[in-house]
Design a protein that fits this description.
Elements: H1 9-29, H2 36-48, H3 50-64, H4 69-81, H5 91-114, H6 119-139, H7 143-161, H8 163-209, E1 216-222, E2 228-234, E3 242-243, H9 244-247, H10 250-263, E4 270-274, H11 282-295, E5 300-304, H12 308-311, E6 318-325, E7 333-340, H13 343-355, H14 361-373
Parallel strand pairs: 4-5
Antiparallel strand pairs: 1-2, 2-3, 6-7
Helix pairs in contact: 1-7, 2-6, 3-5, 4-5, 6-7, 8-10, 10-11, 13-14
Length: 376
């Protein structure tokens, strides 16, 4: 906004000088009416040929006047038909013509008297028209546009001349807004700093059940409003927390994100977890499965897992397999198959995941038990 007012002092001074010259030039012309140019054009046409105009009017008046040939001809015609009954309807018209010719002759004489041969007035008109032409060349196609340009120049001059006052007002407004922004940023940062250790502690509680009992989580906030949030993790006791994305393994990262999602229930509607079961088993696997199931109450959760305890907690179980097939060159091709399992198929698949064999009676019994306690 300050730049639009003419923030550069030298540029502002140059613009003021130019606008002042243009405005003064238009003001000094004292254009009272946008139609002045057309009137002067008509007057110049009369004065430029005044002598010839007067001679033409005098000649026409003489022809129509009492001593002129036209008047004599009309008088002779009137005398010829006057008093003759066949021409009673024409006689008034001839008399009217004679009277009209007399009136025209009188008006022409008046015009002769009105046309002055005034070289000084003619020179003045031509000088004025030259000035108006120059203004139209610079500022508009007609005098109306010239006057409009002058008004715009005056308005812009007023803006530029009041630059210091307006700039000071805008700067005061800017400083006020910055102060309010900084205060609001400080308030938000304070709230985030207060919430950070609470969030870290809540995540640590969930990490205990996810086979990361010695893990320590820190949440740091930086930036004017605390908008730069960093999650730091020490996966093992005695280590200093480091940025989560740099130090966590795939499984640790997945479980840390799971713990975070269990605390922060709001978020994207669909969550994907891969390797969340890496390096765990037993009760920890049961806890991971239960945690994922709880998260699925409010989200769509997709999990890639090799643990039967985790798979059993799902609403739906999709088995992915791959095999080699002939074709596609000397080495063949790898074909992947995806199958949505029904309950019996899930028992078979969970048995295979538990023991490596879908035919193990003990594994099958365990699979049925897992499904009985799971969601499926």
């Amino acid at each position: 906004a300050l730049e639009e007012l003419g923030g550069d002092e030298r540029a502002r001074a140059r613009e003021i000088d130019l606008l002042r010259h243009q405005h003064d030039e238009i003001e000094q012309a004292a254009i009272g009416d946008p139609g002045e140019d057309a009137r002067l054009d008509a007057e110049e046409d009369v004065l430029a040929d005044a002598t010839a105009h007067r001679e033409a009017a005098a000649s026409a008046g003489a022809a129509l006047g009492g001593d002129g040939a036209a008047a004599a001809a009309v008088a002779e015609a009137l005398a010829a038909i006057e008093g003759r009954s066949p021409f009673d309807d024409l006689e008034p018209r001839v008399r009217s013509l004679a009277a009209e010719m007399g009136d025209l002759a009188g008006e022409l004489r008046d015009r002769v008297d009105a046309i002055d041969d005034d070289p000084e007035r003619l020179a003045s008109i031509r000088e004025r028209r030259a000035l108006l032409h120059e203004l139209r060349r610079k500022y508009g196609a007609d005098l109306g546009e010239v006057l409009a340009y002058g008004a715009e120049a005056a308005e812009r001059l007023a803006e530029l001349r009041s630059h210091d006052e307006r700039a000071a007002a805008l700067d005061a407004q800017r400083r006020d807004l910055l102060g309010r922004l900084e205060a609001e940023q400080a308030r938000v940062r304070s709230e985030r700093e207060a919430a950070a250790p609470k969030l870290a502690a809540a995540v640590e509680e969930h990490l205990v059940g996810l086979a990361m009992a010695g893990a320590r989580m820190e949440v740091t906030v930086e930036g004017p409003a605390g908008e730069e949030v960093t999650f730091r993790l020490a996966a093992n006791a005695g280590h200093e927390p480091q940025p989560l994305a740099k130090v966590a393994s795939g499984g640790e990262l997945a479980r840390a994100m799971l713990a975070l999602r269990l605390v922060l229930t709001a978020g994207p509607p669909t969550l994907v977890f891969d390797e969340v079961d890496a390096g765990i088993g037993g009760e920890a696997a049961n806890t991971v499965g239960a945690s994922l199931a709880a998260l699925a109450d409010d989200h769509q959760v997709l999990v890639v897992t090799h643990l039967a305890q985790v798979a059993a907690t799902a609403d739906h179980h999709v088995a992915v397999s791959k095999a080699s097939a002939r074709g596609g060159g000397s080495g063949g091709v790898t074909v992947r198959a995806v199958q949505l399992l029904d309950r019996e198929s899930r028992v078979v698949e969970l048995s295979r995941m538990l023991s490596g064999s879908p035919d193990s009676a003990a594994a099958r019994e365990h699979a049925v038990e897992l499904l009985g306690g799971g969601r499926g």
